[in-house]
Write a structure and sequence with these properties.
The chain is of the alpha+beta class. It is built from five helices and 20 strands. The protein has four domains: about 120 residues, Beta Barrel (conserved putative lor/sdh protein from methanococcus maripaludis s2 fold), CATH 2.40.420; about 100 residues, Efflux pump adaptor protein, beta barrel domain (Elongation Factor Tu (Ef-tu), domain 3, Beta Barrel), CATH 2.40.30; about 50 residues, Beta Barrel (OB fold (Dihydrolipoamide Acetyltransferase, E2P)), CATH 2.40.50.100; about 80 residues, Helix Hairpins.
Length: about 400
């Protein structure tokens, strides 16, 4: 019988594998290959993303200043009005009569004043020759009363003219007019509580953005310590409720100086051009406020993860070994985390093949590049040199 029986050979091979030390088997495994990018600190725009709500720059509730019957509605609802455009007309009959009466009172007061001036002049000239000082004083008093009566009549005339003008109710501002709350024949009263209509100015539009007070304190610390350089002008952009980026850029109108007791946020107002009236008062928006620049590292979001406590971490290669480092971030910018602490200039940041990494494990690095979306791309080789071997295709997928 042959000594090399198949079963005997299989047993010998199994015993040989079991006898090989584990370290020797591991030594035969090549280090995992990972794609890396070199990170350096750079000026990064400091952009805050804040919730916002649109408010009208001006909004006027139209109320009558005189009472009477509405005889005309002079505008079309939903149309753009200019300041001074007529909107309603109230029956002017009574106010026209009051104006005529006031004009007559002025004419009578002027005639009385003329008579008093003539009488006083004649009495003053005859003083000492048939006229006493008492008569001169009485004539002077009559003259002063006539002058006062004329002033009162002229004031009544001005009021009567104003009330007649107020029978035509005009828009005090430029804006869009609402549907009228009254119709022809309705009786209105002066300074009533209910508005006849509302005119809202939509261009420009203003947006209140709400920033937590704690973040505001942090920003002030960054400014005072030189970590943040403010722009000369604070500007903002908007994202509409549909996800569309609004075309216009807004300017800071007024910073907030009070903290809401209910939300703990500070209200800051920006103004945006709104010629197409896309933004309406009360609309919820998302604003991006460009404050300035800060020196930081940009770490693609695919290369970093957060644990259950919110701690951000990433893998770097130091001394040829994979090392996991905790990062301090200050928001995001274009698919990157803005990292302010945890990295060193020139660190090789691992951007793929995370499943093969363990702390302190030796790795083989392959320089790669990232596109504008943070996706790993093979770095082109210099002329005359072969291209670097890319990491395994399955390993380039972002970590879950």
């Amino acid at each position: 019988m042959s000594l090399f029986h198949p079963m005997a050979c299989a047993g010998l091979i199994a015993l040989w594998f079991l006898s090989v030390p584990a370290a020797a088997q591991e030594a035969q495994m090549p280090p995992p290959q990972v794609g890396v990018v070199t990170v350096q600190p750079q000026p990064v725009p400091r952009i805050l993303t804040l919730p916002g709500r649109a408010v009208a720059q001006s909004q006027a509730a139209i109320r009558p200043r005189v009472g009477g019957l509405v005889t005309e509605v002079l505008y079309q609802p939903g149309t753009a009005l200019e300041a001074g455009a007529p909107m309603f007309r109230i029956d002017p009959t009574i106010y026209q009569a009051n104006l005529t009466s006031a004009e007559a009172q002025v004419a009578s007061a002027r005639a009385a004043l003329t008579e008093a001036e003539t009488s006083f002049g004649r009495t003053e000239q005859l003083l000492g020759s048939g006229t006493t000082q008492a008569q001169v004083d009485a004539s002077r008093a009559t003259l002063e009363q006539a002058r006062s009566a004329l002033q009162a009549a002229e004031a009544a005339l001005s009021l009567a003219q104003a009330e007649l003008e107020w029978t035509t109710i005009a828009s005090p501002i430029d804006g869009m007019a609402s549907v009228p709350a009254v119709s022809v024949g309705d009786l209105v009263t002066a300074n009533q509580a209910d508005a006849l209509a509302t005119v809202t100015q939509l261009d420009p539009i203003e947006v209140d953005m709400f920033e937590p007070s704690a973040r505001l304190l942090s920003l002030r610390d960054d400014i005072s310590e030189g970590r943040l350089r403010l722009n000369d002008r604070i500007q903002a952009t908007l994202t509409l409720e549909t996800g569309e980026t609004y075309a216009a850029t807004g300017e800071l109108v007024a910073p907030g100086y009070t903290v809401s007791t209910s939300t703990g946020a500070v209200d800051t107002r920006f103004r945006f051009e709104n010629p197409r009236r896309l933004i309406l008062p009360g609309m919820f928006l998302r604003g991006q406020v460009n404050l300035g620049t800060t020196e930081a590292f940009l770490v693609t979001q695919n290369a970093a993860t957060r644990d259950k406590t919110g701690q951000l971490s990433a893998w770097v290669v130091r001394d040829g070994k994979a090392t996991q480092v905790d990062l301090a971030d200050d928001g995001s910018y274009q698919n990157h985390w803005i990292v302010t602490n945890g990295l060193q200039p020139g660190d090789s940041l691992i951007v793929d093949n995370f499943a093969a990494l363990t702390e302190g494990a030796e790795v083989t690095t392959v320089p790669v590049t990232l596109d504008e979306n943070g996706v790993v791309r093979e770095q082109p080789a210099p002329e005359g040199e072969p291209a670097a071997a890319p990491a395994d295709a399955a390993a380039t997928a972002p970590a879950e």
